[in-house]
Structures are given as C-alpha cells and as structure tokens.
Amino acid sequence: MTTGFSGFDDRLNDLLARQAEKSGLSTDEFIRGAVVDRLVRQLSEDQDSDVGALLRALQEGSEKGVGPAEVTRVFGTPIDDPDRLAAVARTGLMDTGSDAGYDRIVRMVADALSAPSAAFSLLDDKRQYFKSALGLPAELGGAQEVPMDGSICRYAIDLGQPLVVEDARLNDILKDHPSVQGNLLVSYLGIPLTDDAGHSVGTLCVWDQRPRQWTTGHVQILQDLAWIIRERVFE
Questions:
Q1: pLDDT tens profile 143-155
Q2: Per-residue DSSP letters for 48-114?
Q3: How far apart are CA 172 and CA 151, in angstroms?
Q4: E strands along the chain, which residues?
Q5: CB–CB of 108/119 below 8 Å?
Q6: pTM of the predicted model, to two decimals?
C-alpha cells in the first residue's frame, strides 16, 4: 500500500509523489503549495476581499510585464542608508499595531511553508518592528520589536534578495548572533520588501528552531506572498 494523501488511491499517490519530487518538495509541502495556489485563485475572484483586490492588481501588472521577478533583483541598500530610512517612514506602518489583512497573509505564509514562525516586519536603523507575526519567542515578553542587534532580517535588507539559511549554527556570519546563541532561531528564509526605487523597507520571513532545507519551491511561494504584501504597502 502506497503511503500518501488520505482519500487518494495508489495511482494518484504515486503521481503526487513524482510531481512533488520534480518540484523539489515533500508530498506535504507540494499539497500545501497547491492549496495556496487554489486559495490565491479563489481570492482573486472574490470581489469583497481586500486580498483579492491586491491579487487582481498583481495579475493586471503581470500582463503589462510587471511581476514578482522584480522583487528578486539585487538592490541591497545599507540598513542606515538615508534614502532607505525615508522609504520606511513613507510606509507609515511603524508602530501602527496589528492589521487583519496582513495577519491573514502571514498565517497563509506559515501554513504554506509549514513553519512555526512567520512575520512581516519593517526595519529602520535601530530596530525591527513586527507589523504582523506568528510564533514570536516568549523571550520578547509580548514586545512587537527587537533591537537591530537581535535582527536576522537586517541581513536580507543588506543583501537585497532572498536570504536562505538552513542552519545558522553552521554559518560563519550568523553562528554568533544572539538569536542563534539563544536557541531562538536555527533556520530562516526571508524576502526583502523593496519599493520601486530599490529601497528594502522590510521583510516577509519564516523561521524555525530546527534546521530546514529550503527549496526553490519554498522561495517561490514566499516571493509570491511577499508580492501581495508589497503591493499593499506601496499602493
């Protein structure tokens, strides 16, 4: 008997396993990605959904030659760059509290990547502010921010492209980071949120307290969902 998705016969489970392998994902991850794809399509058709409106705008942009590929261009502005800090201020989102729309997207991110922790954050030159987050460490005591020396996302900002860390304990730069030394984070995947001028104002990220092998499929899912947030931030 083939092990697979409940309700599928052996043939369907074999097909599912093969397609997941081709995508570089486990069967569970492939199923979650498919669910997110279907959810995105359904939300796109929902005239009463804020997220649906964002997705329709994204689709229109893609037809004009604008799409998620722009997010992956390597911009890389320093964390203390004055123009980047001005771009952060223009978002008007620092210290503004929770937002149901962003919360839904962050939950979708965590579910799609089977990650215990996910966040949409903004970073100035002194701190990382969690606009929406799941699974923040209890050590924060309910605080919605960390000082810059406690941030991993700052490296995604500096890099200007997806930051993929499978085991920070083996990374020469990150192994001595306070979050790693404090066992708050072992693996990390983050996408910088970049405006049209190339300034990264924040990140959409996931992290885990155990090593993770992030695949190209994981990165693509996070990029797609980061694009939804980007459109909302810079609308």
A1: 899 999 999 999 9
A2: T-HHHHHHHHHHHHHHTT--GGGGGS-----TT-HHHHHHHHHHT-TT----HHHHHHHHHHHHHTT
A3: 16
A4: 117-123, 127-134, 145-147, 163-165, 187-194, 200-208
A5: no
A6: 0.70
